[in-house]
Amino acid sequence: MPLDARIASLEDRHAALERRILDEDRRPLPDGQELARLKREKLKLKEEMERLRAATRH
Hints:
The protein is an all-alpha fold. The chain is built from 2 helices and no strands. The longest helix has 26 residues, at 32-57.
């Protein structure tokens, strides 16, 4: 998979996780463990995107 396509795929997953986080947070009784898990996963995706972007600049 070309690097640009990989980054785009990660961006899509990142945005989907953001929507899931917002949905969970809006529930009457949000699941704190699920929110934490989703946020960790989102952070990992962000770090991966940043790493790939940095690699394309070199």
